[in-house]
Amino acid sequence: MNLVAASALIAGKLEKNVSIEFSSRVITSIEPNSSLTPTIAGTLLPGFVDIHCHGGGGYYFSALNPEHISTVIQTHEAHGTTSMLASLVSEPIESLLTQIQTLRPFINQGSIKGIHLEGPYLAPSHCGAHDPALLKVPTIPELEKLIEASDANIRMVTIAPELNGAIAAIEFLVKQGITVALGHSGADAVTTRAAIAAGATIITHFNNGMPKLDTGENISSVSLNDSSVALELILDGVHLNESSTQRILDAAPGRFIAVTDAMSAAGVGDGAYRIGNLEVLVGSGVARLTSNNALAGSTLTMDRAFLNLVNNFGISIIDASFATSTLPAERIGLVDIGGIEVGKIADFVELTPAGKITLIS
Predict the structure, then answer these.
(1) Residue 51 — pLDDT band, cuts 50, 70, 90?
(2) Which listed residue (236, 261, 303, 347) is catalytic?
């Protein structure tokens, strides 16, 4: 198959009149400055890669009904997400094992790229929307059990590094080829540096579920200034205000990853929902626990995150695509997505002349 775009992001540069050929969904040829007439009037970009998403369309990835899981995938795909991890919240281990096994067919068919465990290895002091009664310390035998249930498809695990056994768990996971994110943590600077030295490379929803900026030498200050660490950002205007977002973007160029952290209301609307056993009320697109008013994920989609970077913070199309596609793919070890290159999967979105995002299918 062939498509021709008026412009396209190729190898970090915006090229004009780009002809792209692909077969069996794999790009086989790219020709900038083609003489062919464009069939796509806007700018062709790689499909979005969301490495932290719990749900959408009214359902969660933890659902045991495959149709509900399909609805989550389709909801985010409609907003330009062509690759994603299924994020699971803290649950009893037996429940997580069942959820993981339910997701395996979707991984096998390529609908999702793997699983992200956000919990239960989190700090009670920064549990956020996770049920504190379900939190626990990590052990390697338990991690082995979870990895085996996934058929080695757990791609990322969020861990609070101050927990007993956390550093050993991080080292173990990294040896298995699993990306480790630090989050839901109040770790001090020494512990954070030890976790990064052990192989942690991402901070889960930076500045949320952790000490805020300018609160001392801790996980926030260390990770903001460590060039080896990528920072997840929930760019919905709620989890991070404008001034904090701008400060982070300025301090960590090329190190921020846009994520949705979406809960079930994404793509649906306001109303009463749940996260695990916890009740959530969504009003004006903001999800909060009814028990303590804590933020409970977002209703964000990746197209909104991309456009927020470009329109509200002046981030270039090139750098915004890096944050929404290239860097997240790299950090979870996926080499066949995240860019428009020969040999990569032909997943595209268009930034239209009107400034909208459209999935190219």
Answers:
(1) very high
(2) 261
pLDDT at 278: 84
Residues belonging to the chain: 361
The span from the CA of 265 to the CA of 37, in Å, is 41
Which residues are CB-contacts of 353 (< 8 A; sequence separation ≥ 6)?
41, 42
Asked whether the predicted pLDDT for residue 1 surpasses 90, the reply is: no
pTM for this prediction? 0.97
Domain 48-336: assigned CATH number: 3.20.20.140
Q: Is the pLDDT of residue 361 over 90?
A: no
Q: Are strands 81-88 and 230-234 parallel, antiparallel or unpaired?
A: unpaired
Nearest to 318 by CA among 67, 47, 8, 76: 8
Active site residue 319: no
Give all strands (DSSP E) within the chain, no chain letters.
2-10, 13-23, 26-31, 40-46, 48-50, 55-56, 59-60, 81-88, 114-118, 154-159, 179-182, 202-203, 230-234, 256-259, 271-275, 278-283, 286-289, 348-351, 357-360
Burial 243-259 (b: 16+ CB within 10 A, else e): eebebbbeebeebbbbb
> 275-334 pLDDT, tens per residue?
888 899 999 999 999 988 989 999 999 999 999 999 999 999 999 999 999 999 999 999
* 92: DSSP letter: -
Query: Residue type at 117?
Result: L
Domain ranges of the chain: 2-44+351-360, 48-336
